[in-house]
Amino acid sequence: MLVELVVKNLGVIEDARIPMGPGLTALTGETGAGKTMVVEALNLLLGGRPDSDRVRVGASEAIVEGLFARGETEWVLRRILPASGRSRAYINGELATAAALADIGAELLEIHGQHAQQALLQPRTQRAALDEFASIDRTPLLRARRQAEEARTRLEQTGGDERSRMREIDLLRFQLEEIDRVAPVVGEELLLDQEQDLLSGALAHQQAAFIAVAALSEDGSANDLLARAMNKLADRSPFATVLARLRNVAAELEDCAAELRQLGESIEPNEERLDQVRSRRQLLVELRRKYGDSLSEVVAYADEARDRLEDLTAHDATLAAYEAELATAVAELQQVSDAIGKKRRAAAPELAAAVEAHLVGLALAGAKLEVRVTDTDELPGAGELVELRIAVNPGSAMGSLSKVASGGELSRVMLALRLVLSDAPPTMVFDEVDAGIGGEAALCVGRALAELGANSQVIVVTHLPQVAAFADVQVLVAKTQAQDSARTTAVVLDAEGRVIELSRMLSGSPDSATARDHALELLSSAQSERRADHP
């Protein structure tokens, strides 16, 4: 539901804040006062095309804001239209695209009036109307179509061009042979690095070990000096603790010398092995350059290539399986399409008759409606193309709504359609719905709008007092003329204000006693009818 609408510097509207309530709200006022700008403001909140010429003269930008509520959830939609430059859209204070605004707005608000604003002219709206009337759920159709598309994609990817398939097989075999020939092992590069370091410095390592052994164990070495020190301290009790520690050091030095001698003797220069290690490392570098940043990635690539090669070489069996899968999916899609198409074709004349019955009381008594159902190449049998066609006058040929019906007629067709369907959007706006009618027809339109407003929020822009009298709330859009500019205000009318405004609408004179009596009679009669319809 639209809770509040704020419009600033749009057309003749300088600053208007319009609270909206449930039920039927009527926007009334003199011609040119700015009622159309209210509808234009709502259209902007639906992501409609901005027109910088709509910005009020002298203002740098126009601003439209709407607070919507649905259950416990609220949205604030905002559109800023600069006098020059691109418009900006916001959802709950966050910058958004006009498309995102339209997506949310389409779930909250529906406008019926000017052809450019008519949701009824969209093919998906007409199809959705028939589906709702016939209680058709398109979910199985969409699911079956998605499964068929996925099966077709798998088949195309598996089948493909035979030459391309053979080229890919040859490439994969070459790559796997190259990787398998090297047979990389994850982690071996670290071991090769260590072995290369050992072999490339073998003589230096060996020489360093022997020099260290000599320093530890030959005459005049560390061991000799340590032995001399221990001899000096022997049998001297003050140094007993230190002497024990020195003996441990001496034993450790002997162990170190023995280990160094063993290691030094074990290191042997091996140029042949060094060349092998270097060659191996270069092979691994080449693999990483082609197939991954690490050996683990190279191994993973090989596994994937092996699986892909297996799929390609098992092509005929895989192809047959995917062909069978596609055939099953297509058959299921056709079955679902035929079932939905049958229901649509059966329900189409019933929907047309139900809408026609309501058109009789909406100043379209001679109109004939046809719901045409045709197929698409993509979904034969499903009746995906649904078109509402109308002959407004008796004897005239049927034509599409966009070519035959005026803005007011379109609004009344949509009003009749909404009376037939049960699932209406939260808020509906009707502009021009009373164009070219009056008298009893106007009363019928008012009754229909009030009936629709019993379950949804309905906003109607009207010039007819018979329609406005059925409203739960009446908002007066009035323009005051200054010397250099005009200013429009929107005011929710109280009971007395409604009588005055209805008097003006009836006679052009809000002070006319006769018009006032007639206004009171209209209000009383409309409210009595509403109480009788909804006790």
Automatic annotation (TrEMBL):
Keywords: ATP-binding, DNA damage, DNA repair, Nucleotide-binding
SUPFAM superfamilies xref list: P-loop containing nucleoside triphosphate hydrolases
GO cellular component, one term: bacterial nucleoid
One BP annotation, GO: SOS response
Pfam families: SMC_N
InterPro entries, per database record: DNA_recomb/repair_RecN, P-loop_NTPase, RecF/RecN/SMC_N
All residue ranges annotated as the RecF/RecN/SMC N-terminal domain in the record: 2-482
Gene3D superfamilies (alphabetical): 6.10.140.1090, P-loop containing nucleotide triphosphate hydrolases (3.40.50.300)
CDD domains given in the database record: ABC_RecN
Assigned protein family: Belongs to the RecN family.
Name of the protein this chain belongs to: DNA repair protein RecN
Provenance organism: freshwater metagenome
